[in-house]
Input
Amino acid sequence: MIQRLTAFLAIFLVSCLTAVAQDDAALLRSYLGIYEGRGVAIYEAGGHEEVSCRLSFDSGSAGKIILRDSFCQVSGTNIRFTGTMAYLGGQYEAAVTSNVGFNARTIGRREGNAIVFVLQDAALADRTLGLSATFVMTDGGVVVDMDLVSNRTGAVTKVRVPMVRR
Output
């Protein structure tokens, strides 16, 4: 009797954990699509500038979603992004590269029906800028908040871009 109960509890726990993992992977896949938005870059020295972004999430293999054909435009410069997001080993993971020498990996967390990725102390490949960012996927939208720090002057630029599914 105890062996049956123990076996039942073990099967029940495994099935619950599998259901949770499937639910987390399904939440990530629910963000497939194209998101666009406009935000603002606020410069410490004064002034601000419009930033426009487009993110495209496509289905990838093994529960991954692929970030492709994605960019943000500021000061006439297109910053292009590619990467992957996945729910692996009980956690959300993201890896992103760009055409301006920015490469990063981070771990995300689920907050209700949102997925939050926080990136701290990243830098461009040439080390001219430091970067901290929060990337929130929630309720059919994506919000990106960034702090860019000039490693030469220490000046901080704050960027916020809310995006909606197109």
Notes: The domain at 2-165 is CATH 2.40.128.20 (Lipocalin). Confidence is low (pLDDT under 50) at residues 1-21. The radius of gyration is 19 Å. The longest strand covers residues 48-59.
